[in-house]
C-alpha cells in the first residue's frame, strides 16, 4: 500500500520521466524505419516496456543501453517477421491500437492480447476502419475486443470520420495508410494529440493537414533518427496538482513537453485562478519543450468541455481532486471517453473521492464536483488504473490524516518513480 500523509508547503524544482505517448511512437516508428533510431529519456514504464517486447518478438533488434536510452535497429517494414508467440501489450491501449495499424499491412499472422483491462476496452474503433482498408482481423465478439488475430496483407486507403477524438485511432490508421494503396484520410470531431504527425514528419514521411483532415499517401518509408523524449506533462500534472492542494506551495517541472494538444490542464488550472508560467526552451524531434511553474492560491470551480477535453483527457482524474478544493461547482462534460480508459474513470474517480468526503456526482459524459469540501483521510484503491492511483495519492496531501492507496503497483505503467517524488512533498 502507498501511504501519503498530509502535505506541508513546498517550493521545488523537479523533473518527470519521458512522455509515454512519444516513447511508444519512437520505438514503433524506429522499428519500421530504415536505419538506427537512438532514443534518449525514454519512459521505462510498464506500458512502453511492453511495446519494446512486442517489437522484439516481431524480429526487431532493440538494445537498451541504460534505463532510459535505447537503440532500435530498424530494417524497414520488411524487417518485421511473423512472431512465434502472442504479442502481449500488457495494460497499454496505445500499444495495441497502433500495433494493429502496423500488423494490418504486414504479410503474416499474429495474435495480440493484453491484461484484463485491455480485454474490456473497445477495439472496434480501429478494427472496423482497418477491415475497410482490407485487413483480415478476428477477435472476441466479432473483433470488438482483444485478443485479436491479424492476418496482414495488402491494404487500400480509405477516408475515415472517427466519431471520437482519438490519437490512437488516428495514429493506427496513419500507420496502416503508410503501407496502403492510395491515400488514407482521417477526420475527427476535435483535434487529438498530434505526436504521430510530428514524429512521422521528423522520420521523413509526408503528411498533409487540411481543414481538420490528416492525409497520408501509401508507399512511404521512414528513416531512423535521434529522438529525445520530453518530460510527460501528464505525469507533471500530478505535481502541479500537488502545488495547488497544499497551500503556499510552488513547483517547477523542467524539460516537460508543452505541445498545445496536451496543455489543456494548464489552461484549466489558470482559469481556476492558479498562477501558471510556461517558459518555452527548445524543440526535440518536432516537440516543444519548456519549464512550467505552478503556484497555488485560492481556486474557483470551472466548466470544462468541447475541444478542451482531448487536450486534457488523461488529467481529468487529478483535475477532479483539485476541484474538491475550489470554491463553487466544477462541471466536466463531453468526456464519455473516460468510461473506456484503463478503468471507467467517471465511476472510479467518483467512488474513491466520495470515500474522502468529496461531493461528486456522476453524469453520462463527465462529473460535477461541488467544492470546497474538507477531505478526510481514508483507504483508497487504484482499480488497477495508474492515473487513478496517482490522483488518489495526491489527494492524500490535502486529506486530514492522509490516505493509503491499494493497487499502487499500477502506477509503474507510466510514472515508475512517482512514489519517491511524492514522498518528498509530504
Ligand atoms: C494516447 C491517446 C489517448 C490517451 C492515451 C494515450 C496516445 O487515448 O488517453 O493515454 O498515446 O495516442 P485515445 O486515443 O483513446 O483518446
UniProtKB/TrEMBL annotation:
Binding site for phosphoenolpyruvate: 20, 93, 121, 168, 345, 387
Active site, renumbered: 314
Catalytic reaction list: 3-phosphoshikimate + phosphoenolpyruvate = 5-O-(1-carboxyvinyl)-3-phosphoshikimate + phosphate
Pfam families: EPSP_synthase
Localization in the cell: Cytoplasm
Residue ranges constituting the Enolpyruvate transferase domain according to the UniProt record: 6-420
UniProt xrefs under SUPFAM superfamilies: EPT/RTPC-like
Keyword Amino-acid biosynthesis: yes
Top EC class for this record: transferase
EC number(s) on file: 2.5.1.19
Pathways per UniProt: Metabolic intermediate biosynthesis; chorismate biosynthesis; chorismate from D-erythrose 4-phosphate and phosphoenolpyruvate: step 6/7
Entries under InterPro entries matching the protein: Enolpyruvate_Tfrase_dom, Enolpyruvate_Tfrase_sf, EPSP_synthase, EPSP_synthase_CS, RNA3'P_cycl/enolpyr_Trfase_a/b
GO function terms (MF aspect): 3-phosphoshikimate 1-carboxyvinyltransferase activity
Gene Ontology cellular component annotations, sorted alphabetically: cytoplasm
Cross-referenced HAMAP family: EPSP_synth
Subunit structure: Monomer.
Stated family: Belongs to the EPSP synthase family.
Protein name: 3-phosphoshikimate 1-carboxyvinyltransferase
Amino acid at each position: 500500500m502507498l501511504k501519503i500523509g498530509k502535505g506541508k508547503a513546498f517550493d521545488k524544482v523537479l523533473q518527470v520521466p519521458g512522455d509515454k505517448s512519444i516513447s511508444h511512437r519512437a520505438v514503433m516508428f524506429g522499428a519500421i524505419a530504415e536505419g538506427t533510431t537512438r532514443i534518449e529519456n525514454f519512459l521505462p514504464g510498464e506500458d512502453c516496456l511492453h511495446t519494446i517486447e512486442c517489437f522484439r518478438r516481431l524480429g526487431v533488434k532493440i538494445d537498451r543501453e541504460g534505463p532510459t536510452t535505447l537503440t532500435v535497429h530498424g530494417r524497414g517494414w520488411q524487417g518485421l517477421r511473423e512472431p512465434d508467440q502472442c504479442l502481449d501489450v500488457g495494460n497499454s491501449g496505445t500499444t495495441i491500437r497502433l500495433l494493429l495499424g502496423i500488423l494490418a499491412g504486414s504479410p503474416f499472422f499474429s495474435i495480440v492480447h493484453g491484461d484484463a483491462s485491455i480485454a474490456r476496452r473497445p477495439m472496434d474503433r480501429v478494427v472496423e476502419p482497418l477491415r475497410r482498408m482490407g485487413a483480415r482481423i478476428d477477435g472476441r465478439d466479432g473483433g470488438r475486443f482483444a485478443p485479436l488475430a491479424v492476418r496482414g496483407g495488402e491494404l487500400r486507403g480509405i477516408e475515415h470520420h472517427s466519431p471520437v477524438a482519438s490519437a490512437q485511432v488516428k495514429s493506427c490508421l496513419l500507420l496502416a495508410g503508410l503501407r496502403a494503396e492510395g491515400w488514407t484520410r482521417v477526420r475527427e470531431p476535435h483535434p487529438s494529440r498530434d505526436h504521430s504527425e510530428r514524429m512521422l514528419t521528423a522520420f521523413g514521411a509526408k503528411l498533409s493537414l487540411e481543414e481538420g483532415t490528416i492525409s497520408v499517401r501509401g508507399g512511404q518509408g521512414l528513416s531512423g533518427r535521434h529522438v529525445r523524449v520530453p518530460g510527460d506533462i501528464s505525469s507533471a500534472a500530478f505535481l502541479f496538482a500537488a502545488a495547488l492542494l497544499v497551500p503556499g506551495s510552488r513547483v517547477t517541472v523542467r524539460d516537460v513537453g508543452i505541445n498545445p494538444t496536451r496543455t489543456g490542464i494548464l489552461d484549466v488550472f489558470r482559469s481556476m485562478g492558479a498562477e501558471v508560467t510556461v517558459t518555452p526552451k527548445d524543440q526535440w524531434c518536432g516537440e516543444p519543450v519548456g519549464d512550467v511553474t505552478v503556484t497555488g492560491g485560492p481556486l474557483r470551480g470551472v466548466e470544462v468541455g468541447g475541444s478542451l477535453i482531448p487536450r486534457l483527457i488523461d488529467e481529468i482524474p487529478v483535475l477532479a481532486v483539485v476541484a474538491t478544493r475550489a470554491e463553487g461547482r466544477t462541471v466536466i462534460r463531453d468526456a464519455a471517453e473516460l468510461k473506456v480508459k484503463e478503468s471507467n474513470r467517471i465511476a472510479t474517480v467518483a467512488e474513491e473521492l466520495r470515500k474522502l468526503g468529496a461531493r461528486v456526482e456522476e453524469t453520462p459524459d463527465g462529473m460535477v464536483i461541488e467544492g470546497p469540501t474538507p477531505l478526510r483521510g481514508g483507504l483508497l484503491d487504484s482499480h488497477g488504473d495508474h492515473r487513478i492511483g496517482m490522483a488518489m495519492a495526491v489527494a492524500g496531501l490535502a486529506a486530514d490524516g492522509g490516505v493509503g492507496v491499494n493497487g499502487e503497483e499500477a502506477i509503474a505503467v507510466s510514472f515508475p518513480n512517482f512514489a519517491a517524488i511524492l514522498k518528498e512533498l509530504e
